[in-house]
Design goal:
Layout lengths: L11 H17 L4 H12 L3 E5 L6 H11 E2 L2 E5 L6 H5 E6 L4 E6 L6 E5 L6 H13 L1 E4 L2 E4 L5 E6 L12 H4 L2 E6 L5 H13 L13 E2 H10 L7 H16 L3 E3 L3 H17 L7 H12 L4 E2 L1 H5 L4 H11 L5
Parallel strand pairs: 1-9, 1-10, 2-11, 3-6, 6-9
Antiparallel strand pairs: 4-5, 7-8, 12-13
């Protein structure tokens, strides 16, 4: 099937803006290009991101940096074991002057919300995020409060199980478009980090950064996604990958249709970031592991044999024939 040239999107300005965004991120964070690409893909695809990595690999810095470079309201919530739902969503307070109840918004009311160490809060507080993540609204005391169009949650978590951490419920994990693992830097990158800190001059202060994208520009870029072409054979390719997760002997709980939609949206956004207005099988193959790995529950046998969700996901993707 041919791509309709009449509806082709002019991506010149878009590509320039994204390049400036990436250049600024590279000035602050050494390496992690793939992670940066994935985070931008998720934000563009109107999805929430879960960043996982050991302490000190710049998870929080990356999330703050992305929020800083997009002109939007930003808030940060540090999750702790004693955090209550009202600390996140807000609370209703009686106003003696008006003899009425006023709603005081919690930190979850912003365009981009950084939830630090999301696995430290108990189930009750985790559940408070369910509605706001999926439906972009909060219901408190019978009143529904709508979130802005841009609403995105960037969450971080530490993979090392320590005291005071709680496993995220499957239903909540499913609401994250992607789970991205940030690894250690390479030797050269670590030397570069040390050099930057040693000279101190080349360290860029977040406060001195000016936004590169306005809220309106980002929303118009999201609208461009509707015009990204996806061939029917590629939609079938996505469906076949998701079907594999449901039939595999290593997987106890496979991916839901939400995962299929997430994979399609993410591959369209990734194609845009690469300066294309059509999706290729490589786009799908690249983003699929990040969309699927946190949605699968492995069987006890697979876990005992030392398999991880990432490894199983990669195997299942490789099983499906790539459309020509």
């Amino acid at each position: 099937m041919e791509v309709n040239t009449e509806k082709r999107v002019d991506l010149t300005l878009f590509s320039e803006k994204i390049q400036v965004l990436k250049d600024w991120i590279a000035m602050v964070i050494v390496g992690q290009e793939q992670t940066v690409d994935l985070v931008l893909t998720a934000v563009l695809a109107n999805g929430h991101v879960l960043l996982e990595g050991v302490p000190g690999v710049a998870k929080t810095l990356l999330a703050r940096l992305v929020a800083r470079l997009i002109e939007a309201d930003f808030s940060r919530i540090q999750f702790t074991p004693d955090l209550m739902p009202s600390d996140v969503l807000g609370t209703t307070v009686f106003n003696m002057k008006t003899n009425d109840f006023d709603f005081h918004q919690g930190p979850v009311f912003a365009d981009i919300v950084l939830v630090d160490e999301i696995n430290r809060a108990p189930a009750k507080t985790q559940a408070a995020l369910f509605e706001v993540m999926e439906e972009r609204q909060v219901s408190i005391d019978g009143t529904t409060h709508q979130m802005g169009e841009l609403y995105t949650i960037l969450a971080t978590q530490n993979p090392v199980e320590q005291e005071g951490t709680y496993k995220l419920p499957e239903a909540q994990l499913d609401r994250f478009l992607m789970k991205i693992t940030m690894g250690y830097p390479s030797l050269e990158e670590e030397v570069d980090i040390l050099e930057r800190h040693h000279t101190n001059a080349s360290l860029v202060k977040l406060d001195s950064l000016a936004p590169v994208l306005t809220k309106e520009e980002l929303l118009s870029l999201r609208r461009l996604m509707e015009r990204v072409f996806v061939d029917r054979t590629l939609l079938q390719y996505i469906a076949l990958i998701v079907q594999q997760t449901r039939t595999s002997k290593a997987v106890y709980l496979g991916a839901s249709p939400r995962a299929s939609v997430a994979m399609m949206q993410a591959s369209k956004a990734y194609a845009l970031l690469q300066g294309r207005d059509f999706v290729t099988p490589e786009d799908i193959k690249f983003i699929a592991p990040y969309v699927l790995q946190h949605r699968l529950i492995l069987t006890a046998e697979a876990e005992m044999e030392g398999y991880s969700s990432v490894k199983v996901t990669q195997r299942l993707i490789d099983k499906v024939e790539v459309p020509k």
